[in-house]
Amino acid sequence: MAIIEGWLPPTQAHYDLILRVWQFAFPPLASIQWLVRWYPMGKTSVASRLNLPGRVAWMTMEAPGFLTLLYLMSTMPERHGIDDLPWQNRVLGGLFVIHYSYRAIAFPLLQPSMAPIHALVWAAALCFQLLNATCLGSWLSAYGPVTADAWAAQSPLPQFALGMLLFYVGLAGNFFHDEELREIRRRAAAKQRKQQSTNGQGKVANGGGTVAAKHYYEIPQAGLFRYMLYPHYFCEWVEWLGFVMAAGWTCAPAWAFLVNEVVSMLPRAVNGKRWYVERFGADKVGKKWAIIPGVL
């Protein structure tokens, strides 16, 4: 059953159109961040009537990606007379679901606190997810290689295996550095609880539960944070470079995804370094790079 006839799942012509939009229209829009420092989420969140609760906004803007991909992979093969997708298609789909199950569900639930997210950021992220999942899901379901011979030409087994390894290295690095940022807030919350207990205030914030260390920041130091301020972004790029390698160097949707990740996240990292310098001073930030050691 189609959600939007001809578009979701997309016909070949509509897939080609959506992919061109994803490849050529989205990067210039994301590049506007170089000109505008206003980015109302996370540590740069602002007070606004258009703010959405952090956890709810995050889940609802991230989850549609992997849900769309699963929908396409479960419906499109039959529509195109494909009895059984090769194992490579299912593995790559699984990698996508693994990443976004963490990002969409586990990540917001693990966060000690989350700042509100502006509705415009939510809408942009939702568009990112739907365009990306539609392109990748359609390629994996029908419009990419769908036979063993096609995969032998697209991505030989050693290349596929190396790409998977690189993906998991990036995924582990992404989680490790996310966890370091969470640990900073946990330590701050524990310190607040101890101070409140010492002062005899009785109940702590959040209805007597845990204290959320809101608006508390410090410069993280563990792992690649010693050298850069946004290693969790860098590791996510490593993940999707591994995905491109596994999918094959000619996989246009995978390349479009990686390019749009870089174009979207690079200005945030550069502006984020400026934020750290303004908040803590250039001496405290030291010689840390924003995201690419030796480059930027």
Features:
membrane, single chain, two-stranded antiparallel sheet, 9 helices, mainly alpha, 296 residues
Task: Please characterize this protein's 3D structure.
The chain has helices spanning 12-30, 54-79, 87-110, 119-143, 148-154, 157-198, 231-247, 252-280, 282-285; strands at residues 51-52, 117-118. Helices cover 65% and strands 1% of the residues. The longest helix is centred in the middle third of the chain and has 42 residues, at 157-198. It has 296 residues and is an all-alpha fold. Pfam families: Steroid_dh (PF02544). The chain crosses the membrane at residues 117-140, 160-177, 237-258. Residues 118-191, 215-296 form the 3-oxo-5-alpha-steroid 4-dehydrogenase C-terminal domain.
Number of strands: 2
**What separation lies between the terminal Cα atoms?**
47 Å
- Give the strand content: under 5%
Structural Rg? 21 Å
Strand order of the largest sheet: 1-2
How confident is the prediction overall: mean pLDDT?
Answer: 92
Low-confidence stretches: 202-213
Pairing-aware structural class of the strands and helices?
Answer: mainly alpha
Q: Helical amount among residues, as a percent range?
A: 55-70%
Q: How would you sum up the global shape?
A: globular
